[in-house]
Each structure stands twice: as C-alpha cells, then as structure tokens.
C-alpha cells in the first residue's frame, strides 16, 4: 500500500498511544490509573535541561497585522494575479496544505484538493513559530538565513534595507519563483509581468523590477493604499517599498502562528496548567534519552536548524542543477553551498504542531508519524527498501518517482553520504514508538485553526 494513502493510520496509532497510556500505575476511582509521579520528575528535569521554554509572544500592532493578513491572502502579489501565499499556506492547519508537493501558480482549488501542474519540487513548510526571534534558517535548503543581523539570500546585495527579521526576508522569494507565484513568461497575459520575466532572465539576481511592480499594484488598489497608510502612517505612499509589505507579512505570520501559549499542551504541562498522559511522558523521556531525537530536534523550536541527509526517497521533478539530470534529483543544501558534504541534506524541521503537518519530510513522502519515525530508525534500509507505487499523487497530479531499482546509483550515493548521526540509530519497540508519538502529539497549539 502506498504510504500517502494511509492517513487513517495516524489516527489509529494516536488512539493506540492513548491505550498505552492507560497501562501502569495504581488504580484510582472507577478503575482509572493514577499518574506516575516519577515520570513527571524525570521529564520535567529533561525539559529544563534542554531549555524547552516559550519564547516571548509576538506582539504586532493591529494595523500591521491586518495589512499582513490581507497581503497574505491577496492575489495581487502573484504575476498572474490568480494565486496568493494562502494558496499553499492556508490560514488554518499550521499554515500548510497537507500535500506531498506544493501546487503553485498554475493551481486551482483549495488545499488539500488543489490541482494543477507543474508541481513544486518540495513539500510546503509549516508556518508555526517562525517569528520567535530564534529562527536563523528558512526554506528546506536554508537559502534564506540570518546571522548576527546579516541576511544571506539568493538576491545578494539586491535585498532591500529595512527588513525586520529573517521571516520578512523569506517572504520576498516566493514572489520571484516562476512555479510558486511569479508565473512563466507569457506575453499574451497582461497580468504576468511578462516584460520582467523574459526567457533567460534570472529574476533572483535582478528582483527589484518585480518587487517594484507589486508595490505599484498595491498603491493603485484603493483598499491596500488605505491599509498601507494605516500600518505606516508616517511614511508617504511613494516612499513605501517591498520591505514594508514583507515586514507586514512577517508580523502577521509571527502573531498568527505563535504556538507557545501557556495553556497549550506541552507548555501548559510545564507550567502546571495541563495534564498529559503517562504515555506522552514516557515518550518525552525517550525523546531526550534513549531515542536520541534531541540530537537534531533540540531547543525551544525542537530543531537544531542544521542540515542532515536522511536518505529520503527521491520523488518529484528534482531541483536546480539536479532537475536536468537523469534521473532527476533534489540535492538539497548542496544547491546553496556547492559543498558535496551537503548533498541530499535538508533542514531539520521544527516539531511544533507535527501531528497536523503531514505528510512528512522535505518531499512529503510519508503520510504518518509512524512511517516517518521508522525511516529515522533505519534510514539506509528504509531508503533501499522503498518502492515506487503504481501511482503517487499530490492533489490530482501524478508525482515522478525513483527508487533503488530504477535509480540504483542515486540511492547508493544517498546512503553512502548518510549523516553520521543517522548511521547508528537506536532500537525501539512498538510500545516505545507509541509513546514517542504520544509525546509528539502534545507539541501542539491546541487551537490551530483560528485566526488571531
């Protein structure tokens, strides 16, 4: 059975974790088990040792938030004026579409029923907790990053001044992607910015014309002219640049997708306001201990913000220099650094809201947490055993697929370059797996679908 067809397994396995939580401990009233206080002591010590604490809440002014919310949902930011940021990042569900591979500028419909070609080469990243001030790397390959207040991006010295944070810098680049929002060259369509997007144009190295054209559209729109003035009352409209739009989008995302509230499941447990199951407690102890998940999923974001090759099966159209190769491949971080040590390495994702951010990994190859964890427990074996199903789809579109029988040299290369931390994974029982999943299920906002 193809992994992407087994979403129901996640719900069933989640139910299993609750059953496991009912084992152990003495019996209370009506046969209910009493909590194991020794688990609390151990887990709380591990959470403190690993600095699992809530960063400060984003506090964007209402006018800036409103501008960002409206920009995020506006098709004026796309070349053909048919897609918006929300086409791939819906306002609910952690800001992602639950598709294996995203469907951009040529798509139609709303996630997860969106269709259209071409497919984008990677899975839509979740937007939870991107604006905490702790983020330094964005995109699966980290091509937008920040170090000591200095941004590194594909635009180089063309990046505008005045960006508030790395999330604002990131917001500028889907606008330049022909597959995501800019669209292809089409001289017959007045909305595609065709004169700015001619064949052979490297938009990322000369992005200002596209960004300026977007700002011209916004200023010419009566509603957005008012929203811009409300958000930036001391700035004349003609003096506003794309950085003002990007800062507003960042402010919206930072406030909307802040998932560290003190009443939320894990942080509610940390501050004594919530109870979690003994299964989740055991899973947390495993996470920081025997299972060694914390080696990569560390700190308040549950991410080391580094890049690792887990020998993830290769599906999709490939990317960058790998897209034109036979077979096509996604080389990951290598496309940014040119360093062979970074081949097939991708950014460690945050685990916040992970129960809702399926399918998993950079190309959405696994539909459930169980499948994803089992790949982590034996990356090399899992990669070599993977077989392409008869049909592999994202929305209504078939996804190209390679496995070790159709691309043996590619898979051998991926496995040979496996990240050192993945070469000797721990051995876990099925009960351990259930406990780990129970712990991952409490890394949640608890109110993820509301706009606030």
Describe the structure.
With 452 residues, the chain is mainly α. It folds into two domains: 232 residues, Cytochrome c-like domain (Cytochrome Bc1 Complex, Chain D, domain 2, Orthogonal Bundle), CATH 1.10.760; 158 residues, Cytochrome Bc1 Complex, Chain D, domain 2, CATH 1.10.760. The chain has 14 helices and seven strands. It has a three-stranded antiparallel β-sheet. Strands 4-5 form a two-stranded antiparallel ribbon. Strands 6-7 form a two-stranded antiparallel sheet. The protein starts with 6 loop residues before the first helix and ends in a 12-residue tail after the last helix. The N terminus is likely disordered.
Rg estimate, integer Å: 23 Å
Helix content: 25-40%
- The total count of helices amounts to 14
Mean pLDDT over the residues: 87
What fraction of residues sit in β-strands?
under 5%
CATH architecture descriptor name of the largest domain: Orthogonal Bundle
Class per helix and strand makeup: mainly alpha
Spans of at least 5 consecutive residues whose pLDDT stays below 50 are 1-30
Which of globular, elongated, flat, extended, rod-shaped describes the shape? globular
What profile does the largest beta sheet have? 3 strands, antiparallel
The first-to-last residue Cα distance is 40 Å
Order of helices and strands: HHHEEEHHHHHHEHEHHEEHH
């Amino acid at each position: 059975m193809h992994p992407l067809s087994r979403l129901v397994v996640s719900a069933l396995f989640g139910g299993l974790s609750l059953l496991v939580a009912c084992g152990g401990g003495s019996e209370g009233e009506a046969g209910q088990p009493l909590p194991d206080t020794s688990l609390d002591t151990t887990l709380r010590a591990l959470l403190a040792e690993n600095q699992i604490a809530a960063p400060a809440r984003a506090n964007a002014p209402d006018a800036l938030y409103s501008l960002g919310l409206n920009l995020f949902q506006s098709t004026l930011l796309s070349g053909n004026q048919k897609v918006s940021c929300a086409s791939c990042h819906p306002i609910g569900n952690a800001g992602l579409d639950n598709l294996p591979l995203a469907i951009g500028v040529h798509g139609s419909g709303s996630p997860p029923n969106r269709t259209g070609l071409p497919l984008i080469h990677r899975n839509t990243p979740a937007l939870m907790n991107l604006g905490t001030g702790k983020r330094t790397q964005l995109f699966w390959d980290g091509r937008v990053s920040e170090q000591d207040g200095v941004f590194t991006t594909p635009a180089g010295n063309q990046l505008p001044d005045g960006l508030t944070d790395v999330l604002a810098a990131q917001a500028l680049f889907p606008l330049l992607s022909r597959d995501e929002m800019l669209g292809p060259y089409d001289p017959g369509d007045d909305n595609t910015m065709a004169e700015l997007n001619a064949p052979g144009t490297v938009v990322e190295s000369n992005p200002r014309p596209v960004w300026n054209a977007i700002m011209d559209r916004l200023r010419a729109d009566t509603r957005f002219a008012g929203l811009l003035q409300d958000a930036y009352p001391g700035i004349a409209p003609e003096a506003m640049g794309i950085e003002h739009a990007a800062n507003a989008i960042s402010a919206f995302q930072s406030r909307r997708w802040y998932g560290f509230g003190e009443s939320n499941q894990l942080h509610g447990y940390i501050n004594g306001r919530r109870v979690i199951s003994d299964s989740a407690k055991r899973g947390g102890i495993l996470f920081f201990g025997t299972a060694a998940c914390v080696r990569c999923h560390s700190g308040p974001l549950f991410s080391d913000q580094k890049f690792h090759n887990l020998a993830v099966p290769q599906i999709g159209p490939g990317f960058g220099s790998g897209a034109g190769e036979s077979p096509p491949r996604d080389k990951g971080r290598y496309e940014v650094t040119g360093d062979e040590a970074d081949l097939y390495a991708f950014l460690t994702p945050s685990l916040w809201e992970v129960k809702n951010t399926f399918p998993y990994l950079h190309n959405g190859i696994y539909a459930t947490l169980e499948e994803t964890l089992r790949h982590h427990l034996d990356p090399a074996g899992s990669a070599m055993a993977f077989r392409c199903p008869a049909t592999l789809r994202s929305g209504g579109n078939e996804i190209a697929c390679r496995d070790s029988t159709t691309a043996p040299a590619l898979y051998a290369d991926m496995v040979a370059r496996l990240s050192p931390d993945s070469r000797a994974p721990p051995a876990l029982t099925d009960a351990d797996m259930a406990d780990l999943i129970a712990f991952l299920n409490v890394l949640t906002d608890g109110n993820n679908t509301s706009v606030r």
